[in-house]
Amino acid sequence: MSRRRVAAGFVVVIAVSAVGGWVAGRQISSPAEIAARMAPPEPSPILVPVERQVLTADVVTRGTGRYGTPREVSVAPSPLAPSPAIVTGLPPIGTVVAEGEVLFEVSGRPVVVLEGSAPSFRDLGPGMSGDDVAQLEAALDRLGHEPGPVDGRYDRSTEAAVQRLYEAIGSQPAVVRAAQLGDLVPAAASAYPESTPSPGVMVAAGEMYFTPSLPLRVAEVGTGLGRPVDGAVLFVTDATVAVDGAVPVEQSGLIAVGMPVRIDEPDLAIEATGVVAMVADGPGTDGADGFHVHFEVTVDDAPPGVVNASVRLSIATESTADEVLVVPVAALYLTADGDSVIRVERGGDLVTVAVRPGLAARGLVEVEAIDGELAAGDLVVIGFDEPGSELSDAGADGG
Known about the structure:
This protein is α+β, with helices and mostly antiparallel strands. The chain is 19% helix and 36% strand. The strands form six sheets. Strands 2-19-23-22-21-20 form a six-stranded antiparallel beta sheet, with no helix packed on it.
């Protein structure tokens, strides 16, 4: 029995030793094994698609929307006008008036808006001539009243066209007889010695308001109904909406009249386009300080809310002619030889493609493959996601 017990004891000792050796082997690792277990996982590439688009380089600033600068409207004196001159009709503020429409009334007579660069300064009638007659004829022609040749001569065709203009606005023009000419034709006619006034349909100087740009918008009323005409009756602006902006002096050379502009303000749901209409000659004008240059943008089809709003202006100073392949700037690498390359994912592997970079703007750069193939939708590397990094955590959170 004692021999059997001894043998069994040896078996137990051997078994325990084997288990202890196995456990010890599991607990003891080589330095290489420890380093391998402690090493962080291999970073994974961050991939974004190649896109095809028209790329533009922008100067971005802010501006404030407005209507044009208000200017006053007064009534030119005329012997043909009723006396006393009393304001009998005024439009509401904000009214938009087009060519050939009545702006206001004086003593029951209409004041009609016409396009022209020179203000009305004398009564016009048959036999008279001059640049102001040509300006009147051009307006009548645009309105379709057929004044005949625009030659600066107030003839029978011009007279008939004036009659049609007044009928179109529901009124009648002044008609002067021969006996009245000496008293009614103002001294201003002497500026044109070749003018020989004749009886017939005449245009009173105070009944035509010529303005360089149309339509007009009524910005302010300068008097009240029933008040004598004395000074400004109205203040008007162009109905066109403009935005005033300013850029640093060092950027002012990048913008020029005619450049397209994107206008937006997401918080106000404003989105529009426009064109640079004016760039100041230097800093410190039109409200800009000595370090900025003022410019003006004309808004196309201005949406509601632009006037008096602060909006973002993006001026396209440079653009690709057509759609091009673009990648984020972070995708572009320089080799030791100074060549530009990108890394493209192909079937799980990263392939280096040599490219020729072009215009860079808004964090993107135009690229053209010169060694290898590249197409829209290909995935390119813009960095590597280190596990535990902010990028990794953001990805885990869905950011």
